Amino acid sequence: MSKPSLSLVLLIALYCVLSIAAIWRAIDIASLDLFSLGVVPVLIGILIRAPWSAIVLKIYVILQTLGLSALGVTAILAYQITPEDVKVVVSGNDIPMLPLILVIIALVIFQFSVAFSAKTKAYLTK
Fold first, then answer.
1. What pTM was computed for the model?
2. Going by C-beta distance under 8 Å and a sequence separation of 6 or more, which residues neighbour residue 21?
3. Which of 65, 42, 49, 53 is nearest to 112 (CA)?
4. DSSP three-state, residue 116
5. CA-based nearest residue to 7, from 113, 99, 80
6. Whole-angstrom Cα distance, residue 96 to residue 79?
7. What are the pLDDT digits (tens) for 91-119?
8. 8-state DSSP, 30
């Protein structure tokens, strides 16, 4: 398979945006973390079609799922204690929780479908 599938191209575009945001954040706060900068080696591996990139992609998506699940459980527990304090604020703007949760779930499902698809495996194994 010489060309990546449309879903893999979309994932590459998403990871390019996330890589730029992760590098910007790392420079801004002068700190490195696996949760945000982990996307960079995954993106590089996919772009050079390295044999290890399929495994790293799957591990990264699983790590994302675990991290987001932990954040979700923490938010649910915090909501039980003080519901008025559970909100997401970015640059002074409140982000509604339901659309945010739906977008996050959709992105994780999309990443899982791409990471575990036969087309992605065939593309990355050359």
1. 0.85
2. 36
3. 65
4. coil
5. 113
6. 14
7. 888 888 889 899 999 999 999 999 999 99
8. T
Q: pLDDT tens digits, residue range 17-69?
A: 999 988 888 888 887 777 677 899 999 999 999 989 999 999 999 999 999 99
Structure tokens given for 114: 């791409």
Q: How far apart are the first and last CA of the chain?
A: 7
Kindly compute the dihedral angle of the four CA atoms of residues 9, 14, 20, 23, in this order, to the nearest 10 degrees. Answer: -110
Which token pair is 102? Answer: 């739906």
How far is it, in rounded angstroms, from Cα 71 to Cα 74?
A: 5
Sequence letter at residue 52:
W
Instruction: Report yes or no: 114 and 44 within 8 Å, Cβ to Cβ.
Output: no
- What are the angstrom distances between the C-alpha of 95 and each of 53, 59, 74, 91, 120? 34, 29, 18, 10, 34
Q: How far apart are CA 117 and CA 24, in angstroms?
A: 31
Residue with tokens 């087309």: 119
Among 31, 19, 10, 39, which Cα is nearest to 117's? 10
- 3-state class of 2 per DSSP? coil
